[in-house]
Amino acid sequence: MRTIMLFLLAAVALIGCEDVQTNSPALQASLNDEFYKSTDVRAQLSPDGSLVIQGMTDLEKLTITLSGSSEGVYTLGGNGTNRAVFEDFLGSIYTTRPFGNGEVVIENSADNTFSGTFKFNAYRFGLDTLNAQQGHFYKVPILDAPIDDDDDQPMELNALVDDNNFNPSIITAVTEGNTIVIRGANQNDAITLQVPSDINTGNYPVDNEAITATYTLDGAQLATESGEITISAHDTEFNLIAGTFSFQTGDPENIQITEGTFSVNY
């Protein structure tokens, strides 16, 4: 009987431990249906009254910037101060500004800490979407250390060259007359795409006139035999363009460029 009682007491104690909730600062959410929880959280108040709340892990970072710090609802999206930014382990940046949406609710701002909820849709322009649901931040403290809340998206251009990764060290995008010229280059090779500056979304064959795709190897530009460029998004107000591409050079190299993606600001 004594053994049974000891077992029951131990079970009750274990259940009690599982129900304990700590008061530690926290920031967590469901990001594209995957659980995210920061290991370090902090807040910063700027002289202009804006508030930055940031949660970090060793590899990822979620930053919320708001126009104020008072309790209430803050709408995300557009070109205003309010925004949410997520940087993943690859360095890709998803932002709600200007094309995303969402809201942040500051529910408690007592004792120089902030607690509340959030949800949002953020974008890598033309490439990917991040959906945040069931977001919570709890007793996030104000720290003196500055917080980087930059939401500038890095330019991206990647592809496979004969099934080998092409990750250029330099990416440029400029307008030359009525043409947008996008170029990614390494020391020995480069990919260059050219499209009209007024191009709309859609699929376009590489025609060696208005729309071109070329591969340069060891300083020699190889002739393109066939290919396609797909424009998935083009915003002429913000000078942003994104899409995919694939093409093949002619004889004798017959190099295959596949799974190409780009998202640039020109």
From TrEMBL:
InterPro entries: DUF6252. PROSITE patterns: PROKAR_LIPOPROTEIN. It comes from Planktosalinus lacus. This is Lipoprotein.
